[in-house]
Specification:
Residues 1-22 form the signal peptide. Keywords: Signal. By secondary structure, this protein is α+β, with helices and mostly antiparallel strands. The protein has four helices and nine strands. The strands form two sheets. The chain has a seven-stranded mixed β-sheet, covered by helices on one side. It has a two-stranded antiparallel sheet with strand order 1-3. A hairpin with a 5-residue loop joins strand 7 (131-134) and strand 8 (140-143). The longest helix is centred in the middle third of the chain and has 14 residues, at 64-77. It is globular.
Length: 157
């Protein structure tokens, strides 16, 4: 009985436990400011930031936790981070998708490859055959060949 009361009180005070329940969305400018201040760069094959163009790299409607997560990753790893994919159209759909603000793609490098494979747990191949690594935080890093596809469920790296 006491446990039920404490659980109800915690749920009331803390809100739902679902990571999708209370996310803070940022504009492209807000996210770009934070990322640039952290030394994180952005490139796009189209040289643009329009969310509605698949060749752009947009941060529009990205989650604050995703921005915080990639900044945490950069600070922990010491690697150069260049974002090549954000919230623009053209990525796979789903709850924890690029478009919904949970994912970024970053350029592969020797530093990023070594850090991710050396510090995170290999959890097997994704359904499409790409290797996945999971941080203690639960965030997932997938080596898609030309880049790392990262899903931030929390702001820890």
């Amino acid at each position: 009985m006491l446990l039920a009361v404490l659980a109800a009180l915690a749920a009331t005070l803390l809100g739902p436990a679902s990571p999708a329940s209370a996310v803070t969305k940022l504009t492209d400018a807000q996210a770009a400011s934070q990322l640039s201040a952290a030394g994180i760069t952005r490139t796009s094959s189209g040289g643009c930031t329009n969310r509605n163009v698949s060749t752009c790299t947009s941060y529009e409607q990205i989650n604050q936790s995703t921005v915080s997560g990639i900044i945490t990753y950069k600070n922990a790893s010491g690697c150069a981070v260049n974002i090549t994919g954000g919230t623009e159209v053209g990525h796979a759909s789903g709850t924890y998708s690029h478009y919904n603000g949970y994912k970024v793609d970053i350029s592969r490098s020797t530093c990023n490859d070594s850090w991710i494979t050396g510090h995170y747990s290999y959890i097997g191949l994704r359904g499409d055959g790409y290797p996945q690594y999971q941080a203690a935080s639960g965030n997932v890093y997938v080596n898609e060949g030309s880049h790392w596809d990262i899903t931030y469920y929390t702001c820890g790296c």
